[in-house]
Write a structure and sequence with these properties.
There is one protein chain. The chain is mainly beta and about 130 residues long. Helices cover about 5% and strands about 60% of the residues. The strands form two sheets. It has a five-stranded mixed β-sheet, covered by helices on one side. Strands 1-3-7-6 form a four-stranded mixed β-sheet, with helices on one face. The longest helix has 9 residues. The mean pLDDT is about 95.
Amino acid sequence: MWFLAGTFGGQAERTCEVPSGRPIAAPVVNTFGDPENCEAFMGSARGTVLLDGKVVEPETHKADLIMVQGAEGNPLTGEEGRFTATGCGLWVQLPPLASGTHSLKIRGRSGDFSTGVDYALTVAASSV
């Protein structure tokens, strides 16, 4: 699996090389906290994903138990240490892409929080 990053809010444009034969996963809009936070967040979570101009439906994850490993200075946790939380959000998973260039546009929103990333992806030809 090849993971693409979301944002902490706002828009970003990124260029990325993806290894041939790897499925891709990326957040559309997501958060973590306790089950009540996730329920409120998911109540207004919406998102769109376009791969090469074609709509891809995001997957909904309402309340998954996750393990978080924080690092000092991390913008999400602010400190180091391991803790369990509830993760939720909309994610997109793509099968391995054909070699060549691809456009991936991700937009997400929940309440007044919004995120978006435009990826220019390049998949190298398989070396097999």
